[in-house]
Here is the input.
Amino acid sequence: MKFPDGFLWGTATSTTQIEGHIDNEWTDFVAQDGCNCRIACDHYHRYAEDIEWMSKLGVNSYRFGIEWSRLQSEPFAPLNQAELARYVDLLDRLKAAGITPMVVLHHFSNPPWINAAGGWTNSAAIAAFVDYVGKLVAVLKDRVHLWNTFNEPDTYACLAYVMGGYPPHRKWRLGQFRRVIKHMARAHEQASHIIQREGSSSRRQEVGIAKNWTFFHAYKRFSPWDRLTAFACHYTFNKFVLNAFLGGRRRKDSTFIGLNYYGRVRFHHFRAMIPASGAPEHRLKEYGFVCDDMVERYPEGLGKIMAYLTHRFHLPVYITEHGSASADEEFRKRDLLNNLAVLQGSITSGADVRGFYYWSLLDNFEWQFGYSKKFGLLSVDFSDERLPRRMKPLAETYRKVCLENSIFHSR
Ligand code: FCB
Here is the structure.
C-alpha cells in the first residue's frame, strides 16, 4: 500500500472559506445557518500559525487560493503590492516549511467589478482574468509551479445559474450555465498558455482545472424518469464540462487533471437522495445509503473515474480535493482509508496519480451551509473570538499516511 516516491500529500482550502476580510460576492451572503464569511477562520491574519499546523500534520503540499478581488481594483489594473506581498510571504513560509504550493486562481468568487458587469456570462471576463493571471504568474513563477486555473467550474456555474444557491442566485438559466462554462474554458486555454510559457528549462510550469466528479445514478434501475434525470445531470455537469475544458484540441491546454471527488447522488422520484438536498436521515438509512453530512460515499467510483480519465486523456492526475463532513471521526477515517485504498489500486493499474489533497485543513465556511458542515482536519471554535484551532482524531490518521507515504499502518 505504498504510494509512488515524491507523491504530494496535502490539504486544500479556498480564500472565501477561510481568509475573512474579503470584498467579493460572498461578503453580504447569509448562509443557511444565519452566518457569513466576513471573518471566517481569519486565515488572512493567521496564515503563519496555520502553516505551523500543516507542519505538525506532516503534509508536503498545500492547495490554496489567491483572491483576485484583493489584487485588482478594476480591469487591467496593476496588482495591489501590499496584498501581493502578503501572498509572497505565505509562499516563502511554505517553502521554509518544505511545503509545495498549488495555487488556485478562481474558486467560486470574483472581484466586484466582474460581478457588476455580469460575471462570467459576459465574455469580457476572459480578457480581464487572463490579464490578471499574466501579471500574477510573472511575479510568482519562481515560487509556484503548480496552478489550478478554475476550481469546479461545473459546481460554480450550476449553483450560480441553475440551482440558485450561489450568488447571483439565478435558477434554471441553462443558456447562462453553458455560456459561463464556455467563457471559463476559453480563459483556461489562454491562461494556460501564459503559465506554460513562464516555465523554464529548470522548472516546468504545470497547469490544469479541478473538475468535480459526481456520479449520478437512479436509485431504482428500472425507473425511467430517475434514469433520465441522472443522465441529464451527468451529461450537463460531467460530460459537457469535461469536453469544454479538455475535449479535442483543448486537451493540450492542460498538463494535468485536477479531480475533486466526493461521491454519488442517487435519484428517487426526481429527488436527489443526499443530506445536502435535505433528504431525511431515516430514509437514507432505510435505502442503505452510506452518507457523510453532504453526499453518498462511493469509494469504488474513484476507481471508475480514474480509469476513465487515464484511458481518455493520458494526463497525470492530482486528487485536488477529497474529504468528508461528519461529527463521527471513525466514519471519516474509514471513508478516507477506503478512498485511498481505491486510489492505490488505480495507481497499481497504471494511473499516473501525483498527489492527494484532503479537503480541508480547517473547519470553514461551507458556502450556502455556513459553518454547519465540518470538513476540517483541524476544528476551529467559532464561538471563541480567538478562533482556536485543534487537531481532530482524523488528523492523526492522515499524519501517518503522509509521513509513511502509505496507508498500511494507518488501518
Ligand atoms: C467542493 C468545493 C469546496 C468545498 C468542498 C466541500 O465542491 O470545491 O470549496 O465546498 O466541495
User: Anything to note?
Assistant: The first helix runs from residue 15 to 18.
